[in-house]
Amino acid sequence: MKKLTNYLSFLLCILLLAAAACPVSAEANADGYDPDTLSYSNSVDWNKFRGTNTSINVYNWGEYIAVDDGEEGAFDVNAAFEELTGITVNYTNFASNEELYAKLKSGGAAYDIIIPSDYMIARLISEGMLEKLNFDNIPNFALIDDNYKNPDYDPTNEYSVPYTWGTVGIVYNTTLVDPEDDVNTWNILWSEKYAKDILMFSNSRDAFAIALKRLGYSFNTTDEAELQAAAESLKEQKLMVQAYVMDEIFDKMGGGEAALAPYYAGDAITMIDDNPDLAWAVPVEGVNLFIDAICIPRGAANKDAAEMYINFLCETLVALKNCEYIGYSTPHAEAYLYLSDDLKSNPIAYPSDEVIQNSETFTALPSDTTRLIDTLWTSILSNTSTNPYLAMILMFVAIVLSLGINVWRRQRKKQKMYESMN
Amino acid sequence: MTSKSKFLAAPYLLWMIIFIVIPLALIVVFAFTTTVYTDLEGNLLSNEEFDELRIEYDNFYDMADNELPYKKQTVFTLTHIMEVSNYVPVLLNSVWLAIIATAICLLIGYPLAYLISRMRYGFQKLMLMMVMLPMWMNFLLRTYAWMTLLERNGWINKLLGLVGIGPFDMINTQGAVVLGMVYNYLPYMILPLYSIMTKIDNRTIEAAQDLGANSLRVFSKVVLPLSMPGVASGITMVFVPSVSTFIISRMLGGGTNMLIGDLIDLQFLGNAYNPNLGSAISLVLLVFILLCMSITNQLNNEDNMDGGMLL
User: Fold this and answer.
1) Domain check: are A217 and A308 in the same one?
2) Domains of chain B: total
3) Is the peptide bond before B167 cis (omega within 30 degrees of 0)?
4) Given an 8 Å threshold on Cβ–Cβ distance, is B48 in contact with A127?
5) Is A315 contained in some domain?
6) Among B134-138, B199-203, B234-238, B292-296, where is mean pLDDT lowest?
């Protein structure tokens, strides 16, 4: 659906161009920064790996990098990097931090670059799964806003370089939600009025965060009673939930399938662009401020080339193009200056200080807490019973029955053969 | 059996050992074991203690020179199998939905397969192609297409809206999941049925008619018993993938109707990374499927003594 509208807008664009031949190239914004003047810096020797047949494996979220979609001024980050450095980029997608974690843990795939979120980075660091970065190879790190350096998830900033940030709020469809209702609260996601019109995160950490915040607890609680309470409230909510989704949300909210859904601010901007009926609400209980950052997993084959890629992503031009394409907020101080006035003043991407003050970031949880959340989450999605021997008994009965049936059959067969012989 | 024919079976034997026997053994091992960490004196470490020790080690020691301050051990445990008990309702629900889907496939597939097998040869080819046609399309795409059909603002509801009925909630229900299974696995029911039925000699039917059997008796005494091997393998081929499917329930069931396949997926590629529990669930599912297959085989062997090679 989204792709279709992209093509349609592309066609429309061509028609408009043909009709008016108007210049649509970017202009300088109100602060006088003109993106057209940007080019690559000489911060590192980009040609270091040219001709060495080097390739890197990049593992990123879906729809999370600028690609050439045929629109005016499109910029393809990976293609540009390949052209500039001669390094081949193998680019693949994941849908959730947990999927990334499972892939890394099972050891089946080798990646040079991964872009997880804050809490997952903390978990990967604590489990010794990330390489320390050599910041000599990433001079562009200096361009990152100081507010995003040394974050909670990587306090000494040895493992990660911030890529994007944003908040989690509620995307809602103004034609389906009663204007009388207060959408600026997480409670609306528990409202029976919108039963079966609510979408919910299908990853445990984000889902629990909302439930915990609604009950007035911290996202990062390790208190078992609080987590149990959150799980209970998520079970209650399940009756109201239409579907648990991640990227499917683009289709479902875009097509008016559901009325309310919590999601990430950057994607909300994309959705609202596609479907003007949608709007954004910031719950008063407090929101999650998340940061996605670039890391190198332990054992990466081409660490130097990967660091060059990180440095490339921190080029002002690249960070700007990425930010414009994916709609998430940028931690890159210089790229921010060059943003169009529209985006700069967009309260979804760059919320007010009050919202930021009232936000909380995810930190690393002890592995026992992570395990508890995972168990609770699985039990929310399925329906649980209690007798721990049930599975064993059932399995035993099934084995006995299937053996019994086979023995009985053989017996009958013998008997029949005996009868026919007489 | 000559030694030559044994030699011919060697490639598959090798294949079977590498890709069937060893993985199955691994699943059993995973299901009954767990990984624990101990310090060098052999005392069990809690997760926190282990994390602390590892971080300390990572930060202060050079990897190459120092001995690890902990030991990894794999120990026997029943906890994972016991944990599976929590998910028995999910398992039963999956089995139940798969049974429904299989029954519907049989109801639709049986008459169709019979009709095709009695057609002229040219028509048979054409009809078989029609049955196979959806399978030329990618599985994911077929299921995705049903999503856009069944949605609240989907095509079916739009059409119904034109005549003033609806809209109905079709997607994210168990019915939608069953529909997805039936649509995707119906060819697997029709094809084995057809291949058995096409072997039924018309003369046996005519003989029964000559002896005075009405069409109901012809069906119950001749056609049905002769087609039983096809029924059994059709049921197997629909039931087994249905019971362990995961993408259908996620796309059409909205994640609220979790099936056992989703649960296993969650353990290996999802939130709760726990291959041991995933293996335990797979093992229980395996035993369940074994039971169902034994029952199906029974059905096959009731009247037909030499058709028991299907399991």
Assistant:
1) no
2) 2
3) yes
4) no
5) yes
6) B292-296
Q: Sort out which chain A residues have CB atoms less than 8 A from B87's CB and list them.
A: 378, 382, 384, 391
Q: Cβ contact (<8 Å) for B86 and A398?
A: no
Mean pLDDT over residues B105-116, rounded?
95
**How far A153 CA lies from chain B's nearest CA (Å)?**
14
List, in sequence order, every residue forming a beta bridge with B56; answer none if it has no partner: none
Shortest Cα distance, chain A CAs vs residue B78, angstroms: 10
Domain boundary among B38, B64, B82: B82
Please indicate whether, in this complex, the C-beta atoms of B290 and A398 are within 8 angstroms of each other: yes
When pLDDT is averaged across residues A220-234 and rounded to a whole number, the result is: 94
CB contact under 8 A, B294 and A405: yes
Distance CA A203, CA B127 (A): 44
Q: Which of A242, A391, A409 sits opposite B82 (nearest CB)?
A: A391
Domain that holds residue B66: 3-82
CB count within 10 Å of CB B181 equals 28
pTM of the model: 0.79
Which of chain A's residues have a Cβ under 8 Å away from the Cβ of B270? 96, 98-99, 102
Burial profile A248-267: b = 16 or more Cβ within 10 angstroms, e = fewer? bbbbbbbbbbbbbbbbbbbb
pLDDT tens digit sequence for A360-399: 888 878 878 888 888 888 888 876 545 667 777 777 887 8
Asked if pLDDT for residue B46 goes beyond 80, the answer is no
Whether complex ipTM tops 0.85: no
E strand residue ranges, chain B:
33-39, 70-76
Q: Determine, for residues B294 and A244 on separate chains, whether the beta-carbon distance falls below 8 Å.
A: no
> B60 and B117: one domain?
no
- How much is the pLDDT for B65? 56
Structural domain containing residue A117: 38-164+291-364
Q: How far is CA A69 from the centre of its chain?
A: 21
Q: Spell out which residues of chain B touch residue A128, defining contact as CB-CB under 8 Å.
A: 54-55, 58
Tokens of A181: 């209702």
> Among B82, B99, B118, where does a domain finish?
B82
Q: Comparing C-alpha atoms, which of A398, A396, A417 is closest to residue A406?
A: A398
Same domain, residue pair A333 and A187: no
Q: How many CB atoms lie within 10 A of CB B12?
A: 9
Please report residues of B whose CB lies closer than 8 A to that of A367: 47-48, 51
Question: What backbone torsions phi and psi does residue B18 show, to the nearest 5 degrees?
Answer: -70, -45
